[in-house]
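Hey, I was hoping to borrow your eyes for a little while. There's a protein on my desk that I can't quite get my head around. The fold is given in discrete form, as structure tokens running alongside the sequence. I'd be grateful if you could look everything over and explain what you see. Here's the protein in full, and shout if anything looks odd to you:
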Amino acid sequence: MLTDAQKAKWHRDGYLRLEGFFDAPTRNRISDFVEDVAGWDVSTDKWMKWFEKTSDNRKIVSKVENFLDYHDALRQTLLADGRIRTSIEKLLDEDTRMLKELLIFKYPDSGGYRPHQDIYHVPHKLPERMVHAIAAIAVDDAAPDNGGLFFTPGRHKEGVFPMDAGGVINPDVAESFEWEPVPWKAGDVFIFDDYAPHYSLPNKSDRSRRALYLVFQRASTGGPDRAEYNRMKRAYNPPEGKVSDLEDLKTPNGIFYRDDRNS
């Protein structure tokens, strides 16, 4: 049950950390399930995978979407008891439906994500405020050195900030924000508004920073269901195919970067 203080923080800052949401045995199972997904082959019609090239010329998985329908144990562990959805609906004061899920792996020597807002209506041409809350399930501990997130509190109330075609907030705007790191522990759930600006640095540590993201939209907004969203995703931002070129991998989105590439 969320406290009044937690609800107040959500409305004030645009994000909220729920510590110890999953107990140790459950978070260990989630970690194992995530590694299952990391090892899946590329699919051309089910899940979607993106990769990146490391500084020593290895290909590592960067991101996966649309995987819960193909991993029953992981789906049940995350969603069966309804606790995540209930928490979000208490923050929004409204019923929701899940639009999408994604995994960001952030293995050692992975890239970062430039300042942006997770406002899906921009790249996918959805009505404004269609998607409203994202639940990040911490698979690993996160801090700035292993690619943990930075947020700027309270800016979710200011609408869409100026950005480039890829969704990166204009540097002069982003540099004017007061950013704070939001470290978390494995098993925490971190919920944030899709208008809350955030970013992460490349992972230069020897520790992974894997996180699962469940994206919920207000029930009252209507709009596409998960199947429609995934069709749009493949059209706007295609995943890697069965045959990939290490020197020309598909990027997961317009905000991703490596410090040896367009930095």
Observations:
- The chain has a mean pLDDT of 92.
- The first helix runs from residue 4 to 13.
